[in-house]
Write the structure tokens for this entry.
Amino acid sequence: MEHALSPATLTELRRPRPYPAVSVLTPTHRREPEKAQDPVRLRNVVAAAKKQLESDPGVSRDRRADVERQLDQALAEVDLTHAEDGLVIFAAPGEHQVWSLGRPVPERVVLADTFLTRNLVSAQAAERPFWVLSVSADRITLWNGGTDRVAEVRAGGFPLTRSFDNFDAERQERIGDLPSTFRDEGTRHFLRDADTAMSKILRDDLRPLYITGEQAALSALDEVGSVTRDAVHIAHGGLAHGTPDAVWQAVRPLVAAEDRKSTDEVSRELESARGRRAFAAGLDEVWQNAREARVRLLAVEENYRATVRDDGDHLIPAESGDLDAREDIVDEIVEQCLETGAEVRFVPDGTLADADGIAGVLRY
């Protein structure tokens, strides 16, 4: 199942497909007892997608059979043992993808000529993704970080490995010879290669970067690197060969501190915008400004959800299941703001109590 949404991946997902491009969304659960219902719910929503395909006169028999096969293959790939808060299946002629999201989604089936990406976009923004680069003299590992975990990245040349005769990094740490290891020209060339590879990763997908390693490794990387020089350094060795949980525990305090700092910055920006009358609060007011591309900064509480109907002029509260109800209006707003160049920040629940959970700083 997919987790990391890069700009290149998003562009590919939004590419027009031969009709039908099927998007299947369903909420999932991390814990019992709610988790027990997920397999049945998933099978039911996939069955509903097949029923829509069968009743659509615009779908030929051959194309329907192709997409149904893709749905079956996607269903077989789903691992609900490690479910998060939402699941999205994309299926089109000749292709399928399964996405696990750390943000709830409404149950929905959509047939169109593009995949429905707004829930992926919103989940990615809410996760506040970051990179972790773990450095040693013989291995450099890249980790993709999110809300509560990291996972190893095997792309872009990573992990970088290096082998040479009679080298034992752990022994050199024990005998105190690690600094001389990182003065070695071969090792420094290895670090330059990592910096070059990381530079390309950041060009394609810019995020905060944390670097872990022995102090000697961090100092050497500072001397030979470029993009890595501006990263947050964590003097913690052994993680290039470590487990995801060990890496997460090492970076977690710094990530939490950055989150608190970010929340404080958002609060100050919103307060300043109030004084300049460049402030929007509440779902309807923010939606109106988002449609006009006036939002420069969007702030949303992490668990804020709303179901509405659009009467043409305003958003009206609605119940889930009502005719024309829009259950993911918050994700729509997030995607709309991102597409018009706004910055989107998710903040802890209660931060925007006086704005009903969602607020914006306006451009004019």
